[in-house]
Specification:
Rossmann fold, alpha/beta, SIR2/SIRT2 'Small Domain', 2 domains, single chain, 30% helix, six-stranded parallel β-sheet, 8 helices, three-stranded antiparallel β-sheet
Length: 228
Amino acid sequence: MEKLVILTGAGISAESGLKTFRDSDGLWEGYNIEDVATPEAWEHNPVLVQEFYNARRKSVMEAEPNAAHYALAQLEEKYHVTIITQNIDDLHERAGSTNVVHLHGIITRSQSSINPELTYPIDGWELRMDEVCELGSPLRAHVVWFGEAVPMIETAARICSGTDIFMLVGSSLVVYPAAGLIGYVGREVPKYIVDPKIPDVNVRGPVIKIQEKATVGVPALVNELLKK
């Protein structure tokens, strides 16, 4: 069974109604990134940060997977599929994908403020300030903030280096280190890119560009791959 790796970004979730991480005005849901998505923001105003992610979590739970999510899940019928996502939502899992690597964490879980390896499921969408980890530290959203390490990046790079087929969906390839993952894909490996705005990629080997939004381009591509 061939290995197929898919790197997904904000564009696939946007079609389920979730705002992209950084809009054209540099804001996320009307907030400066620095005020809600950095360790310094948590230290300065943890209540604001907690409320922000509670609202994002509520939006995620109200959203539904779209045609692109469901199509990617179908690929498991024929391929050994790994989805590496920059997104913090759980829409891939809810669509049926069983092997998902979350580079930037997942908002439906919490983590200790002092030990990010201590993570917990969240009951509902609200995480309260009085909820603490087993070390007594307040719980925060299980997401990677600016200025924090991306713990899964080495695992993701290793997965990309061993794939037989690579697909990029809904990512502008501007957020590092995730944007560098395509560079680990073998030269002769076919690389499919699905996005209304195809990002510049400096890679050798075959690149197949599908200039469509995810809900159009992904199902069509999946149909082709399942027929091979």
